[in-house]
Amino acid sequence: MKVGIVGLPNAGKSSLFTALTGVQAEAANYPFTTIEPNLAIVPVADRRLDAVADTLGASKVVPDTIAFHDIAGLVAGAHRGEGLGNQFLAHIRETDAIVHVVRVHRDAGVVHPEGRVDPLADIETIETELIYADLEQAERRRERVERAAKSGERRAVAELRWLDELIAALSAGRPARAVPPPSEALDAITLLGPLTAKPVLFVANVEEGSDEVPPAIVEHAEAQGARVVAVPARLEAELAELPEPEAAALRAELGVGESGLEAVVRGAFGLLELVAFFTAAQDKPAQSWHLRRGLSVWHAAGLIHSDIQRGFVRAEVIPWDQLVAAGGYGAARERGVLRLEGRGYPVADGDVVTVRFTP
Ligand SMILES: Nc1nc2c(ncn2[C@@H]2O[C@H](COP(=O)(O)OP(=O)(O)O)[C@@H](O)[C@H]2O)c(=O)[nH]1
Ligand SMILES: [Mg+2]
């Protein structure tokens, strides 16, 4: 899963990114590879996985990760190519979800691109750029679909009608997520990939020692079903660069918990409707994975390995807490709580899954 960090210049994107890189560094004993300097691969800690690993005597714990991409350069006019805008918009298109950083702190030493600190206006500037970008994309797509629709093809006719609705909504300043596609052309939204259909988490970059979010931001977020997390980004970035004992001491002294940053990771993860499942065995790595809610154990097998999916026979499934309570697979089987499931079984949050397959 990949999350794009967006916001105006100087909003605090890179500071938040550096802070997240610190979370990455804390997990230095996990085999992560840093791919690009503006990509942070952050593990998603899960107590349930730790408990399962302990119960089974796993060789190590391998949590699933989330990738944060620091996407610089969104300014007013980006959709017209202002400030390399189109390039940055293309980066956003590749992400599953958006973290929108908005400056709340009023430190006069930090220049604001518009010369004033007005968080709600800043949010609207960014949202307007995303809407314009979607509008252009939708209009281009419409030209192509219109030709197909002239032949009377049902799917194309349905998509064209949807595109007209979408274009009207975007023109009125509403996001694409407000206009779901019709059942005859459900894939139309995937084909178009509108930026304003992606789920958003707002990060309010607050004054150090204050986690108060202006009510206007909270209201704005709630109106679109989004959440807001308060993070003092510069302080978190500085803490991330200190060695762990010093950082912990300073945290205690300043009275800042880790909650802000953790909330960003959890919140970003929570944006997509995902369930966590685990694979684990004695002397093997205990691993967490995430799957869209409603997908089956056969899809889960594909996530683990394509060979395992190809040779899928059945899966042994048990909720993580029942496995921990039983003390192991053998005891769970005797208690009758280890179930056999076929390929259509929808994975539940917290399932421990062992796929039986023919190689
Ligand atoms: N006082 C204060 N300054 C901050 C905070 N977050 C970021 N800054 C400063 O604002 C400037 C721009 O931050 P940066 O993270 O590079 O913003 P970006 O352009 O969105 O990537 C830097 O000088 C940061 O040190 C904050 O929470 N409080
Ligand atoms: Mg930056």
Distance between the termini: 28 Å
- What small molecules accompany the polymer chains? guanosine-5'-diphosphate, magnesium ion
Return the average pLDDT rounded to an integer: 89
Strand content: 15-25%
How many domains make up the 3D coordinates? 3
Q: Helix amount, in percent?
A: 40-55%
Structure description:
The protein is an alpha/beta fold. It folds into three domains: 2-44 and 64-117 and 198-270, Rossmann fold (3-Layer(aba) Sandwich), CATH 3.40.50.300; 130-196, Orthogonal Bundle (DNA polymerase, domain 1), CATH 1.10.150; 294-357, Ubiquitin-like (UB roll). The protein has 14 helices and twelve strands. The strands form two sheets. Strands 2-4-1-5-6-7 form a six-stranded mixed β-sheet, sandwiched between helices. It has a six-stranded mixed β-sheet with strand order 3-9-8-12-10-11, with helices on both faces. Helix 1 packs parallel to helix 8 and helix 2 (47-56) runs parallel beside helix 13 (320-326). It is flat. The structure holds guanosine-5'-diphosphate and magnesium ion (MG). Magnesium ion binds next to helix 1. The site of guanosine-5'-diphosphate has 15 residues, from helix 1 and helix 8.
Annotation keywords:
binds guanosine-5'-diphosphate, 3 domains, single chain, Ubiquitin-like (UB roll), binds magnesium ion, DNA polymerase, domain 1, flat, 6-stranded mixed β-sheet, Rossmann fold
